[in-house]
Amino acid sequence: MTTTTHGSFIIERRYNASPERIFAAWADPKAKRAWFAEGEGWDIRSYELDFRERGTETSTFRVAGGNNPFPPNTTFSNDTVFNEIIANERIVFTYSMARDGMRFSISLATVELHAADKGTRFILTEHGAFFDGADGVKMREQGWQELLGKLDEYLAKAN
Amino acid sequence: MTKRSVTHATFVIERDYAHPPAKVFAAFAHPASKAKWFVGPENWDKSNHKLDFRVGGKESVSGGPPGGAVHYYNAEIWEITQNERIVSSYEMHMNEKRTSVSLATMEFKPNGAGTKLVLTEQGAFLDGIDNAAERERGTNELLNQLATYLNT
Predict the structure, then answer these.
(1) Average of pLDDT values for B135-147?
(2) ipTM for the whole complex
(3) Which of the pair, A62 or A65, is modelled with greater confidence?
(4) Which structural domain range is residue A151 located in?
(5) In whole angstroms, how far apart are CA A110 and each of A91, B18, B116?
(6) What is the pLDDT at residue A134?
(7) Are the beta carbons of B89 and A83 separated by less than 8 Å?
(8) DSSP labels for B83-101?
(9) How crowded is residue B28: how many other Cβ atoms within 10 Å of its Cβ?
(10) Domain containing A75 — which CATH number?
(11) Domains located in chain B, CATH noted
């Protein structure tokens, strides 16, 4: 029998960059690839972003040494559909994650951008159905924490 | 400018049906079957129900009270395990406004000779137009209609 674990989490953080700059880092394929896909120990096999409502984002990335905790050559893929895009304010998207072709989670994520103190109050809320055991949601939250840290570094460098 | 807000909510509904998982699953998987029970109240105007039941396939239906707002349901199917699990995401619009985006998981578990259906909905309700309590009430009504359909 299949087992499904449901979970949700909220990550809230502050960025010094404006909502416009953060939104652009999600909307522009080059920018998004830089902080979202690229990373040490990963070989990006493909990355495509069509940032509009009903548009998709697809990426495939393979373990390539370094400090990567997964076995060599394990391939992960992300398939995203954008449900709602309101420039500089909100992005709602649904996505699946697969490992070596097997989907192990389906998620609904909402990003809210609020101008605050010359920067942005950023809120990511994710709801997920995880097929790979009870700690899926914890690992996902940790993954997003790292990605949102990389977004911060990207914004600082691009400044 | 619209005052933006997002309210997040999760609800779980469990139902016992006196039919095996394959039969309950089929009521979700076969377009002609689902169209019979997955519909709004009797007095509503309705569109045709469309369902392309495969991973990546779409489902749509709309309806509303005569002369009133039209409610649109647009779904995409993300995961299918035959007779066991369906995961889909769906958007609701009221007229031209998107009111929610949800993730819905249906689990079909053998329960004696019957089925325990566990429906989990995790939703983002947008800009205060709709809410989770109303959604849960509507979902319960649909599951009542499913029970009636299965028993006929």
Answers:
(1) 96
(2) 0.94
(3) A62
(4) 5-158
(5) 6, 38, 31
(6) 67
(7) yes
(8) TTEEEEEEEEEETTEEEEE
(9) 21
(10) 3.30.530.20
(11) 6-151 (3.30.530.20)
Cα distance between residue A156 and residue A147, in whole Å: 14
pLDDT category of residue A135 using cuts at 50, 70 and 90: confident
Mean pLDDT of B40-53: 91
Q: Are the Cβ atoms of B6 and A107 closer than 8 angstroms?
A: no
Residue A17 has pLDDT above 80, yes or no: yes
Amino acid symbol at A147 = L
Arithmetic mean of pLDDT, B96-113: 97
User: A84 burial class (0-12, 13-18, 19+ CB within 10 angstroms)?
Assistant: middle
Alpha-carbon torsion, ordered A4, B151, B16, B118, to 10 deg: 20
Structure tokens at B126: 């947008």
Q: Flag the least confident range among A77-86, B35-44, B103-112, B118-127.
A: B35-44
Distance CA A27, CA B36 (A): 41
Chain B residues at the A interface, defined by Cβ less than 8 Å, are: 4, 6, 8, 10, 76, 78-79, 81, 84-85, 87, 89, 91, 98, 101-103, 105, 107, 109, 120, 122-124, 126
Q: How many domains does chain A have?
A: 1
